[in-house]
């Protein structure tokens, strides 16, 4: 009998809260299947199992906060059939969730992306016998909000309605009677129990705010506390050094203009895609900046997993990884970025995405910032900051013109590298962006 334990989903994580079970006792799972959603105080993350078999007991109830390493469930591995997972038929309507739906590409990774459009024929959580399939917490949430689960589109496995489905439905669907009971405990509140929130006064005919503001404040405060601890640790332990350079993006912008003429609107590329690819390639060429500082020494990573700083709606920040970003074509990297941003903001990140980043990039250009001097995310040793693209006078071969330019900065750990290496790294990014067709 194998045990599924609370994983460590970050260097700063000591505890986590199971906010949703995606399986029930008796369900068959395969290695890599998501089985639970865990709140790390920074984000809700789907956690996969490393063992296949039949789910035995769920040892930790929804809402309970436990230490990393605590057994969460038992899995009877003797019932696993073969080692090759059997593909599951996706629930009706789930395909629409997978497809990027942003009508216009974001100007930067941290930019707000439009919410995904609902499926034209969304799946409902009806089981084979007409019984609505929903997680226990989704049922509790629906009862508290006065929502009929039979009307909620399901996006979980095998047509399961998740708590995220209920929240999304509550945000987008006005209540039939003009108001919705918003009294509910915070969804991921650790012990002691989170405070309840009284329904705010409403005007007849005007829907009440569907989201519990006080509960959201609790979650935001928890996220802020986690970020504060991590950044304080970075400030104490990492001797930063900073470098910056201004890059001429005329070649990159021209190539993007020509390329986007041939692409559908939903697949068009933005300068951030080229910057991500150039940064990933530069990290591969300068492995001294791609890896971790642990046990008083630098350990280079074998792959380039590019962490992307994403601001969350309502506050908070996460930096999940784009795996093997140096090996992805630019169009695939753009699609992966859209998918990552969408899932980060809907609380559907995966465990590996939160733990595997080897170097991070942050882009605040959409906020009007011209340069970013960031803080390295420990135990990583480097972070690249990007400002907005601006037109500047620029001399080329003695001729003065106006060119689109962007300021890039490097924040790096002086224990692992020095300014010479950092300078070569930024210069490599610059050179790569002058030949975008080769990225």
From TrEMBL:
Its EC number is 2.3.1.-. GO terms for cellular component: cytoplasm. Residues 92-132, 165-210 are annotated as: Disordered. Its cofactor is (R)-lipoate. Keywords: Acyltransferase, Lipoyl, Transferase. It holds the Pfam family 2-oxoacid_dh. This is Dihydrolipoamide acetyltransferase component of pyruvate dehydrogenase complex.
């Amino acid at each position: 009998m194998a045990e599924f334990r609370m994983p460590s989903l970050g260097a700063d994580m000591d505890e986590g809260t199971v906010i949703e079970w995606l399986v029930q006792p008796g369900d068959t799972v395969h290695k890599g299947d998501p089985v639970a959603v865990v709140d790390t105080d920074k984000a809700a993350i789907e956690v996969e199992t490393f063992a296949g078999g039949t789910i035995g007991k769920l040892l930790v109830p929804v809402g309970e906060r436990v230490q990393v390493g605590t057994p969460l469930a038992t899995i009877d591995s003797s019932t696993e059939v073969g080692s090759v997972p059997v593909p599951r038929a996706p629930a009706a309507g789930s395909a629409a969730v997978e497809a990027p739906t942003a009508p216009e590409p974001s100007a930067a990774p941290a930019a707000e992306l439009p919410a995904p459009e609902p499926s034209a024929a969304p799946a409902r959580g009806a089981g084979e016998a007409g019984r609505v399939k929903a997680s226990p917490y989704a049922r509790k949430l629906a009862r508290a909000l006065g929502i009929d689960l039979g009307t909620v589109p399901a996006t979980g496995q095998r047509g399961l309605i998740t708590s995220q489905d209920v929240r999304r439905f509550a945000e987008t669907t006005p209540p039939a009677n003009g108001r919705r009971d918003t009294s509910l405990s915070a969804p991921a509140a650790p012990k002691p129990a989170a405070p309840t929130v009284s329904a705010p006064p409403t005007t007849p005919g005007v829907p009440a705010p569907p989201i519990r503001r006080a509960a959201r404040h609790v979650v935001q405060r928890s996220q802020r506390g986690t970020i504060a601890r991590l950044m304080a640790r970075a400030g104490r332990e990492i001797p930063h050094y900073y470098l910056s350079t201004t890059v001429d993006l005329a070649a990159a912008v021209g190539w993007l203009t020509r390329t986007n003429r041939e692409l559908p609107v939903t697949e068009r590329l933005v300068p951030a895609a080229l910057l991500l690819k150039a940064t990933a390639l530069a990290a591969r060429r300068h492995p001294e900046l791609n890896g971790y500082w642990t046990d008083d020494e630098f350990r280079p990573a074998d792959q380039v997993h590019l962490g992307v700083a994403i601001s969350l709606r309502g506050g908070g920040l996460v930096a999940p990884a784009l795996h093997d970003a140096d090996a992805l074509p630019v169009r695939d990297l753009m699609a992966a970025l859209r998918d990552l941003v969408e899932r980060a903001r809907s609380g559907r990140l995966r465990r590996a995405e939160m733990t595997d980043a080897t170097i991070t990039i942050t882009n605040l250009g959409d906020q009007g910032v011209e340069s970013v001097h960031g803080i390295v995310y420990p135990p990583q040793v480097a972070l690249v900051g990007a400002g907005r693209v601006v037109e500047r006078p620029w001399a080329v071969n003695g001729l003065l013109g106006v060119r689109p330019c962007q300021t890039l900065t490097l924040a790096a750990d002086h224990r692992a590298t020095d300014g010479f290496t950092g300078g070569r790294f930024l210069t490599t990014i610059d050179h790569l962006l002058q030949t975008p067709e080769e990225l």
